[in-house]
Write a structure and sequence with these properties.
Layout lengths: L9 E5 L26 H10 L4 E4 L14 E5 L6 H16 L4
Antiparallel strand pairs: 1-3, 2-3
């Protein structure tokens, strides 16, 4: 049986991190060559599950850089020995594979 995850075991990953329509100042955190055009919360959730992460989604959340837009985020299990930026790059690659837009 899986043990329940505590907050410190989770990282927040905003959908805006992967949106190619946004600039870095607006919240994109991956390079443009790894960013997707208008990703959805379900796209990011599927990409995280595809690489084996435990996922909890929050749909009605506003990214701090864009307070008027509801983009949502997922909470994913932390990967030991990996930085958040490395996690985001791996998620972006998985997002490209799951959406069928690999470059």
């Amino acid at each position: 049986m899986r043990r329940p995850l505590k907050k410190r075991d989770l990282q927040i990953v905003w959908v805006d991190y992967f949106n190619s329509k946004l600039g870095r100042r607006q919240g994109r955190r991956v390079p443009l060559n790894l960013a997707a055009k208008n990703p959805t919360l379900d796209d990011v959730r599927r990409a995280a599950e595809a690489i084996g992460l435990h996922v909890v989604a929050a749909r009605e959340a506003h990214h701090p850089g864009r307070p008027r837009e509801r983009s949502g985020y997922v909470q994913v299990s932390r990967m030991e020995g990996r930085s958040k930026q490395a996690l985001l790059k791996e998620l972006a690659k998985s997002l490209m594979r799951t959406r069928g837009t690999a470059r």
